[in-house]
Amino acid sequence: RREPLALINLKKKNEETGEEELASRLDHYKAKATRHIFLIRHSQYNLDGRADKDRTLTPLGREQAELTGLRLASLGLKFDQIIHSSMTRATETTEIISKHLPGVKKISTDLLREGAPIEPDPPVSHWKPEAVQYYEDGARIEAAFRNFIHRADAKQEEDSYEIFVCHANVIRYIVCRALQFPPEGWLRLSLNNGSITHLVIRPNGRVALRTLGDTGFMPPDKITRT
């Protein structure tokens, strides 16, 4: 999933055909399609819930999810799949969004659950998780980035459009990593509930950020960041 040349065992190169065979094998590994990644932050949820199952969407959160689903549907794109965090607020957001995208398969994963990806720089006074949380969550969130954010498979012929419904910390970290920005700066980004972040991954591996935390499709009185 990286540079095609790195995927070839050069020791097995045929000495007689040399560069011609190498070029042929490189074509076999080169991506042809572009991936469009839509990162959706879950809607507003009940902050008073003690356990994850109690942190359900608020009535406003359900409205936000409806608006996000309508916005995604209005783009007229053929979405391939919705991959979502297994946490309650992300699952509920996905269920509402998916009503507006009939036929798009949904996949739940623990990799995209909320957490502390890496110690932020500069530090903040209002949020200081235990150091061990960075090691536990950070490895998982980095694994999510490596697993989901990469150029298209060489077998993929057409451009793809994928939705990921997860959490602010996860999205902010992924954006920094994808753009090759210092990941420690993730907490400097701010995302509204139900917002849409659009990453584009070209066949050559270059990444562009089309939108970050877009909620322009929501009325001002429906916008929150909790």
TrEMBL record:
One biological process term in Gene Ontology: programmed cell death
GO cellular component: mitochondrial outer membrane
Taxonomic source organism: Chloropsis hardwickii
Localization (cell): Mitochondrion outer membrane
Keywords recorded for this protein, A-Z: Hydrolase, Membrane, Mitochondrion, Mitochondrion outer membrane, Necrosis
Highest taxon of the lineage: Eukaryota
Cited InterPro entries: His_Pase_superF_clade-1 (IPR013078), His_PPase_superfam (IPR029033), Mito_Ser/Thr_phosphatase (IPR051021)
Catalysed conversion reaction: O-phospho-L-threonyl-[protein] + H2O = L-threonyl-[protein] + phosphate; O-phospho-L-seryl-[protein] + H2O = L-seryl-[protein] + phosphate
Annotated protein name in UniProt: Serine/threonine-protein phosphatase PGAM5, mitochondrial
UniProt-listed Enzyme Commission number(s): 3.1.3.16
Pfam families: His_Phos_1
Signal peptide span: none
CDD domains reported for this sequence: HP_PGM_like
Family the entry assigns: Belongs to the phosphoglycerate mutase family. BPG-dependent PGAM subfamily.
GO molecular function annotation: protein serine/threonine phosphatase activity
SMART domains recorded: PGAM
